[in-house]
Amino acid sequence: MEDLKHSGLGVSTFIIGLISSIGLLITIVMAGVAEASSYGGMDPNSTTAMLIGLFMMLFLAMTLVTIGLGIAAFVQKGYKKLFPILGVCFSSVMAILIIGLMIIGLSAGY
């Protein structure tokens, strides 16, 4: 039996998934701090709120790209599948979390 190597696409899927997941968690914490630090909550039209929303959308787009790259890396033959699976798992969990937060925010009227 031949020894399989990791594909470059699989490793990049894992790295991008990890970066986007950490970036999303940091953005969520920053949004919570900004909301808690201002009296009456954060103004939705402030620069801070717009930057937080922009970074959320950027990292959400990165997670969606990571899911696509992970699927492409998973169907490659002759390579190990560990990194594509981990990248897709990280990205899927974060995408579901962010979409859930957006739905909660929309239903709350923000």
Can you tell me about this structure?
The chain is mainly alpha-helical and 110 residues long. The protein has a domain at 9-27 and 55-102. It has helices at residues 8-37, 47-74, 82-108, and strands at residues 5-6, 79-80. A two-stranded parallel sheet has the order 1-2. α1 (8-37) runs antiparallel to α2 (47-74), α1 packs parallel to α3 (82-108) and α2 (47-74) runs antiparallel to α3. The longest helix has 30 residues, at 8-37.
Record the SSE blueprint.
Layout: E1 5-6, H1 8-37, H2 47-74, E2 79-80, H3 82-108
Parallel strand pairs: 1-2
Helix pairs in contact: 1-2, 1-3, 2-3
Transmembrane segments: 12-34, 54-75, 82-108
Keywords: Membrane, Transmembrane, Transmembrane helix
Protein name: DUF4064 domain-containing protein
